[in-house]
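Translate sequence into structure tokens.
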Amino acid sequence: MRTSGRTTPLLASTMLLLALGLTACGDEADTAPPAAAGTSAAVLPPDSCDGAGDRVKNHLSSAEVSSVVVNGQCTSVVITTTLGDDAAAAALRFCESAAEIAYTGDVNAVTVLAASGAELAIGISGAKCMASA
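Result follows.
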């Protein structure tokens, strides 16, 4: 079967129009907003988890605490600090203080992070906080 000389230009024109039409479907309003620094998709809105994150942050009330978020399904409180990677003693104090009020509802773990993101201390419900190795 032989194609006419007109089929190739027609096919190319159709493909070009199709490609242009598809790229015109989206615009800047369709893109997702960028994530804020220090957040992840697992972080729940501040009004979630019965305000556990806010209660812990208020209880700690330290300038060394950068943020307190509740991750997972309201099971883990993560405390980000301005502490250095060698500040295990201070991290343990934050962990133990947070543990006094954090373990309500589904919250069963507390993690304290250094400014670098390194884990400094961790606690679980029913046990003492421990410095991370």
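Note: The chain has a mean pLDDT of 78.
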